[in-house]
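BUG: 3D viewer hangs when loading the predicted structure for this chain

Environment: internal workstation, default settings.
Expected: structure renders.
Actual: progress bar stalls at 90%.

Input used:
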Amino acid sequence: MRHENKHSSATGERVLATLNPDGSRHWIRPRLSIGRYWHARRIVAYGLIVLFAALPFVQINGKPAMLLDVVHRRFHLFGATFLPTDTALMAVLMLVIFLGIFLITALLGRVWCGWACPQTVYMEFLYRPIERLIDGAPGSRRSISPSSAGRGLLKFVVFFICSCFLAHTFLAYFVGVDQLRVWITRSPFEHPASFLIMAGTTALMLFDFGYFREQTCLVACPYGRFQSALTDRNTMIISYDSARGEPRGKLTRSAAGDVSLPIAAEAGVQRGDCIDCRMCVTTCPTGIDIRDGLQMECIGCAQCIDACDVVMDRIKRPRGLIRYSSAAVLSGERAHILRPRIMLYPMLLAGFIGLFVYLLVTGQSAEAAILPRQGAPFYALPSGAIANQVRLRIVNRSEAEGRYTVSLADDSVRRGARLAFDANSVPVAPAESVSVGFVIEAPPESFSSRGALEVVLVVSDGRGFSKSLPYRMLGPVGRVDRSEHDDDHHSHDGDGD
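Structure tokens produced before the viewer hung:
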């Protein structure tokens, strides 16, 4: 990178659109190009902003439509509740999300980045409009230098208010609107930790949209670097039609003042439709020149299309010099919608969606699991019996409180095993988990010569849930008579303690 910077300085080129040849920050203030795609994106963007702000307040089946409660380890998604034990469900859900991204990218390129990504939506339809309102629109007659201290302070205050709103809305997805309301209405001294979280999130929002800006897409976000592996020649991208536009050249006026025709090149060669006005460059929010071909920095926002269409209308040339197309179509090839990856992704996606629905519908109302052993593997009781301490975790996945009983299977009882449990049943609140400890006893003669006894624990709630849990009790190796236990039980008791 250091060598590239030196080379860039010598040639006057930039390594990144946000980097000057001398290594300083190049601030991008794109010119707004209003066209059919900008109007469509504005409708989508404002719809997403309203959805983002309203979703934490929406209730489905008495639960938030979306709440990622990391502290209590509960995740509510559109009426369904996921717990940390739902590893299979969460893994399948992540696969569905990634396959969906792969399919959309293979078909439509980076349409997510330009139309729906929160970074683009808030940057281009909230922060930049505010900046244009205060500092003036780039390229317009009322453009005002942003160096004014008063205007700079005003812009900072407005940006800070917007960042506060976004930060609090963002946190509502993780703590819930009720808890967030408590944080807002109480003094920061009563909840310093949560106040620091809100302040830190606000600062990050302000840093991102006020300073870092498009560099989030260019430097921090890895999605642009993946597109070369996710796209092919038939993927729809924003493309410049070089066969129609080249060789480019400036317009000239005729004696009658007509500027609708491109000038002719030397030797009578007709110029292309591109008049090298650079409107597509000055309107790009990441500062690239789309005429150089598909680039990692292109987010697919279509601002260059709107800008070029306006120019084509003025010079009375057909629109579409820059348009949504594919590399194959621009090369004169036939468009192929059905291709291997376009057929493979939907099949995999349908399969994983079906698996997710199956796991969600057939999931049990509770879960039970034996936790790893702690302390001494076994100890002898005064009666001579061998005891194992067992810890059990029970998760209630239902919407009502459950009471769970723990017992031994009949075969285990016949072999002499006995359960020593303080409580007849274990109460567990909805969407909660508890860990309980108890003791299993068995006579020494029940153990094998290797010191093992296989038993089965049964956990049930009397409402349809029942789960059998195999457990291997450990005991002394070989036959041990009663007198040996009487002599040694005190030392084992010490180990058990």
